[in-house]
Design a protein that fits this description.
heterodimer; A: 508 residues; alpha+beta; five-stranded antiparallel sheet; five-stranded mixed sheet; B: 274 residues; mainly alpha; two-stranded antiparallel ribbon; 72% helix
Chain lengths: 508, 274
């Protein structure tokens, strides 16, 4: 409020006139009161204006004395009284302006720091920071560009809606790290713009924001009219601070992203570990069950043979049961041993020899047909001779596993078709296909069917037994032979497993 | 924002200012007219007052022309407006000498200058736009305060009194200030010179140099009192008026408040008689 100091000034002048005071009146010192008041409240401009007015008001008293008496100590004192309010007003006002500018600068730095520490995205933060900077620097417009390249840099402008020309002064400052300063944008020959020149010059600065990593952005500012040295210094200081603050904010964001990424990875790994742990528990449970079933039969029939004197036919039947269950136990243990070898990376011990594939398949089909009477088995032999060289035991296990799988996943019975022929699309390979019309495999599960311990869940097949190892063993054995196994399936329609093995003329 | 939108050429230099030929032509014409005025006066072809009027009109017209050339970089098309302004100024000056009410012809000058300047868009940048009422009132108040201060200080210090030459003479002097003295000073110094300097420097250097140049113009004015104390007073007040006019131009973006301040100050000054 400049009105109150002016009123006080008028009151002092009136008191001097009414009281008919001379130039040496003590009252003249009262001119300092409104002068200092204005300087403290309005800065150098207020202090200077009120001080000048005080000097002017005192002049009609001081100057006639000089005219009459010349330069004496008294008249010099009067002249000093004339100049003192001006000097005092300007000096005190300047100090006030300086301290206010420093306080504003400090407040801006703190506000910027607070904004940049917030949880928002960097571009959202920059809008707030640009607003703080513009207010602190009393700029007409302020733009922040953050990034190393003007085409990809983040842009925050106050007012909003600024476009960046890649040949502009801001782009130049960003690319070179050099400051661009102009006393008047419209009259600067370096800026090629056909815009009318305004009556007030537009001062502008494009300052690179520099951090330890180099130029991280640009701060472009426009002021209308006067640009004081203090404001320019403040802008430079804030640009320096901004460079470091932006770099810190970027590092913090990067750290946040890294921490989030790490947490995601840990979460995925933990879930996978839980899944494996669950699979292991289930596997142990299934293994125990699978081992217990033949073991119980072995115990029961052996006890029966030991304790009772059975007729020869019945004893023979018991021995057949014992043999069958011992074979089952042996197969399970064999599978577990193979699995152990696969897991430890040991090669499977194969003894390849020429195979009578048709005979092997027919034998297995007879066994399966005897055990699963609700299924129909159909064997389609190739018209031409199928010469295959493989480990007979391994091949037998592959066929058994594929047939067992087909039977398990056709719980309501159905047809299981087996065929063997040279693969049409794979010259030199023999194709053995096992096709069922069972429950099929959902598309999202199909990639897991050859994984270890995996049994694709289905309501109709939940009661069936198995370790979830059969298909993974088929895959491992096929690969050990230099072949592979493929599957096509449609849920509700059935599955077709295709075992491809090298023919007898190829080595594995 | 031009820092981001305008193509930037770091090595581009300012195009050279208007040709010296234009300044020479204006200077030559003014010198010719001043010589003609003083010559006719010396040769007795015309009265002293008439010869003086021609010379005075030529000088004020020259100041307006100089301002025009500086503000437009002597761009093509300057001759027409400059000649029209100069001729009108000389004619108004002659009219003022022929009859006290003839000075009212000076009042045509602000309108004519505005009309001519409005057709040249480059001149708008020197502050031809209107000012807000607060700016205009502030200009008037500051000028009136300084004028009143001058009256009080001059009467108390040097014993000057209010002159009794009559209203027509006073109005004639005020009309001269409105159409020639204050108008040419504001147009050239606060308009062309200050605007040009302020675009390059900050306020204080631009305002001090502008004010120093305008003081020089007044110190060469034969109408200024010759007494040392009166010259010291003139330097003080005219310097203050000049600085304040620069501040008003910077504050408002317009020449009007400074022009009104000068008018108010000179209106008070014209009341003073030694």
């Amino acid at each position: 409020m400049i009105a109150l100091p002016l009123a006080l000034l008028a009151a002092v002048a009136l008191a001097m006139v009414v009281g008919d005071q001379g130039p040496a009146s003590v009252l003249r010192h009262l001119y300092l009161v409104p002068t200092l008041w204005a300087a403290l409240t309005r800065g150098a401009i207020g202090g200077g204006v009120v001080g000048a007015l005080a000097g002017l008001l005192h002049a009609p008293l001081a100057l006639p004395a000089v005219e009459r008496a010349g330069l004496t100590s008294q008249t010099l004192d009067g002249l000093l009284s004339l100049g003192l309010p001006i000097v005092a007003g300007l000096l005190v006002g300047r100090l006030v302006d300086g301290s206010r500018a420093r306080a504003a600068r400090l407040a801006a730095v703190l506000a910027i720091q607070r904004r940049l520490d917030g949880p928002e995205a960097l571009d959202d933060k920059l809008v707030g920071v640009a607003r703080e900077l513009r207010a602190a620097l009393r700029a007409r417009r302020l733009v922040l560009l953050v990034g190393a390249d003007v085409r990809t840099a983040l842009l925050a402008s106050v007012p909003v809606g600024t476009l960046v020309d890649p040949d502009s002064a801001a782009a130049f400052a960003l690319a070179t790290g050099q400051r661009v300063s102009t006393a008047d944008l419209a009259a600067d020959p370096r800026m090629r713009a056909d815009e009318p020149i305004s009556s007030t010059p537009v001062r502008a600065l494009a300052m690179p924001l520099v951090s330890g990593a180099g130029v991280v952005g640009v701060m472009a500012i426009e002021w209308s009219g006067e640009l004081s040295r203090a404001t320019r210094a403040a802008a430079e200081e804030l640009a320096l601070h901004m460079g470091l603050a932006v770099e810190n904010a970027r590092l913090t964001l990067r750290q946040h992203h890294f921490a989030e990424e790490l947490a995601d990875k840990v979460s995925v790994a933990t879930a996978r570990l839980r899944e494996l742990d669950g699979a292991k528990t289930e596997f142990l449970s299934v293994v125990s069950h699978e081992l217990r079933t033949p073991l119980t039969a072995l115990q029961g029939f052996s006890e029966l043979l030991l304790r009772s004197a059975l007729p020869p036919e019945r004893a023979h039947r018991c021995l057949v049961y014992l043999h069958t269950e011992a074979c089952t136990l042996g197969r399970i243990v064999g599978e577990l041993l193979d699995l152990s070898r696969i897991e430890t990376g040991q090669p499977l011990e194969l003894k390849p020899e020429p195979i009578d594939l048709a005979g092997l398949i027919e034998r297995n089909l007879e066994i399966f047909a005897a055990e699963h009477r609700e299924h129909r088995f159909r064997w389609t032999a190739s018209g031409s001779e199928v010469a295959l060289r493989a480990d007979p035991d391994a091949l037998d296990r592959m066929v058994k596993n594929l047939l067992s799988n087909a039977v398990k996943y056709s719980p309501r019975g159905g047809q299981v078709c087996v065929s063997a022929c040279p693969a049409e699309d794979q010259p030199g390979m023999i194709e053995l296909a096992v096709e069922d019309d069972g429950v099929g495999i959902p598309a999202d599960q199909i990639r897991r069917v050859f994984d270890k311990y995996v049994r694709i869940p289905h309501a109709e097949t939940a009661a069936s037994r198995g370790l979830g190892l059969g298909l993974s063993l088929v895959k491992a054995l096929a690969e050990a032979h230099g072949g592979r196994v493929e599957v096509d399936s449609l849920p509700g329609k059935g599955s077709r497993f295709r075992l491809l093995l090298p023919g007898a003329d190829r080595h594995f | 924002m031009r820092l981001l939108s305008a193509p930037f050429e770091p090595g581009a230099l300012a195009s050279p200012r208007g040709s010296a030929q234009a300044y020479a032509q204006v200077g030559g014409a003014v010198a010719l007219l001043v010589a003609a005025g003083l010559g006719t006066q010396w040769a007795g072809v015309a009265s002293v007052a008439l010869g003086h009027a021609i010379a005075s009109g030529a000088v004020h017209g020259g100041l307006l022309a100089l301002g025009w050339l500086l503000a437009t970089d002597a761009a093509a098309g300057w001759r027409g407006p400059v000649v029209r302004l100069g001729v009108t100024m000389v004619l108004a000056s002659i009219a003022a000498r022929l009859h006290p009410l003839g000075a009212l012809a000076f009042l045509l000058m602000p309108g004519l200058l505005l009309l001519e300047a409005w057709r040249a868009p480059r001149l708008h940048a020197i502050g031809l736009g209107g000012a807000r009422p607060i700016h205009a009132l502030a200009g008037l108040a500051v000028g009136a305060f300084l004028g009143a201060h001058l009256l009080v200080t001059a009467s108390r210090t040097f014993g000057y009194r209010l002159q009794a030459a009559g209203l027509p003479a006073y109005l004639s002097a005020v009309a001269y200030d409105a159409g020639a003295n204050a108008l040419s000073a504001e147009w050239l110094f606060r308009g062309a010179v200050f605007s040009m300097l302020w675009r390059r420097w900050s306020f204080w250097p631009a305002a001090l140099l502008t004010t120093a140049l305008s003081l020089l113009r007044y110190l060469f004015d034969p109408a200024l009192p010759h007494a040392a104390e009166a010259r010291a007073g003139a330097v003080f007040y005219l310097g203050l008026v000049g600085l304040i006019a620069c501040a008003l131009r910077a504050w408002s973006g317009s020449l009007l408040p400074g022009y009104l301040a000068a008018l108010a100050f000179f209106a008070a000054y014209r009341m003073l008689a030694p």
